[in-house]
Amino acid sequence: DEPAEEHDEL
Amino acid sequence: MNVFRLLGDISHLLAIIILLLKIWKTRSCAGISGRSQVLFAVVYTARYLDLFTSYISAYNSIMKLVFLAASYGTIYLMFIKFKASYDHNHDTFRIEFLILPCVLLSLLINHEFSPLEILWTFSIYLESVAILPQLFMVSKTGEAESITSHYLFALGSYRALYILNWIYRYYAESHYDVIAIVAGIVQTVLYCDFFYLYITKGIYGQ
Asked: So what's the ipTM on this one?
């Protein structure tokens, strides 16, 4: 699983 | 930001405005599932807690605030102001059957085991199925007012447009989020039967 990043979507 | 994402957001915004206007103008929330609306309020609340922790853009923050305000506004209209018109006899979908599996799944499958990330994941899973009480209500009563159909069409289109946005971002930015993509596809598939009826009735109906 890829690391968490900022969720830039709504 | 690409055109699919923008159209998706506009479609989402339109859905929420249609619903609020329908309730406000007719002074009635007949045919609307309060349970779905409560689930959406939970979805936005869990997802947009990041308003306090990360800033992405003014657009992003304003849209989040609008969705939260509109969602709680809808709940206020349904459960307080126009409570008498709420059709609770037909709104009987057991939402614990949606919430509990989403809680479990978000604890098991997430990008990072941290409170905010789990809440974000939970909101993505819950959003994908939050419309089920509404679709159940429509199928139970056998009909939806045309304005309710427009609401459902706009709301369903939003995630369908997001799928195009994710395809675009995958190729243009090498960006993808498996959790959002899979849940978004599930969400869109749930609307397919409704889309089919909406389009065929719209074209061949009346």
From this structure: 0.83
